[in-house]
Amino acid sequence: MKTKRKSSTALITGATSGIGKSFAYKLAEKGYHLILVGRRELELNSVANDLKETYKVHVDVMVGDLSLAKFRKSIAQKIKSNSSVDFLVNNAGFGIDHDFFQIKVKDLRSMVMTHDMATIELTHAVLPGMLKRKKGRIINVSSLGAFIPGFTRSLYLATKSFIHYFTKALSIELKPHGIKVQSLCPGMTLTDFHDRDKTNAIKENSKFLNYMMPDKVAKISLHSLENGKTICIPGFINKIIVLIAKILPCKLLGFLSSFRRERPTIKYPHTLYALVA
Ligand SMILES: NC(=O)c1ccc[n+]([C@@H]2O[C@H](COP(=O)([O-])OP(=O)(O)OC[C@H]3O[C@@H](n4cnc5c(N)ncnc54)[C@H](OP(=O)(O)O)[C@@H]3O)[C@@H](O)[C@H]2O)c1
Prior knowledge:
Layout: E1 9-13, H1 18-29, E2 33-38, H2 41-55, E3 59-63, H3 69-81, E4 85-90, H4 105-133, E5 136-141, H5 154-174, E6 179-184, H6 193-196, H7 200-204, H8 214-226, E7 231-232, H9 236-247, H10 250-262, H11 270-276
Parallel strand pairs: 1-2, 1-4, 2-3, 4-5, 5-6, 6-7
Helix pairs in contact: 1-8, 3-4, 4-5, 10-11
The structure holds NADP nicotinamide-adenine-dinucleotide phosphate.
């Protein structure tokens, strides 16, 4: 991707850490001004200050919770008042590693709002400007899990499947208008995500797993977007996992998934483990 003229702005949700933070650095390096969204104010400001100093770009910070309609509305208004937002990364997300029935309804609602409603509303807000300028780029962060049923992750995987299929359809609709859209489906990535959702078994087995670094995920995603790829599955092993998941009967996938629950600390070969994680 060529360095952008200085009037282009990228808005990234979940830029405090992990994959979103990596996108922020990569896009600042390409000359984009940034609007960064997240809840942890200190961390987000520290990322913003470093980016300003290193890349001499403008960085705005919006601190808040995407599960709240009021906050999503304020971001949509910011987008509409800033005519230069031509890159959107809907990345913010979190996992909860419990049985569905054990999770409080307010947390289930928060996941749907943060993953899906924020993606819908922010995409809707950036499109008028992008359509007018006949250019734009949108990356929606789904997951390898969009292809795989997984124990204790029923809602997480459903919200990620929603993002994946929504994005696939959107890319067809927007292609004639010069807008590139991507569903990014990362596999296991070394970020704050697994500390926060308390997937201890994953950490215990980490030496067997093929964790990818968030910088690599962001790099592959941006490269594949420029090459016009709508679906980006970073990493060879992750592509194989999706292929296996498509071939295996649903019943067998379900069995592998429940197997993980019964023996959480077993040292699985990493491909099998990643399939059911
Ligand atoms: N790591 C993996 O193995 C993996 C695999 C597949 C897909 N993904 C997806 O990748 C995306 C990024 O996750 P990550 O791995 O980079 O994890 P991470 O380091 O925990 O980053 C998640 C980001 O989302 C933000 N966020 C979460 N909930 C939010 C909310 N309600 N409102 C505003 N911001 C919120 C967090 O910021 P604050 O805490 O400051 O709010 C943080 O910046 C997620 O959508 C995740 O589902 C991750």
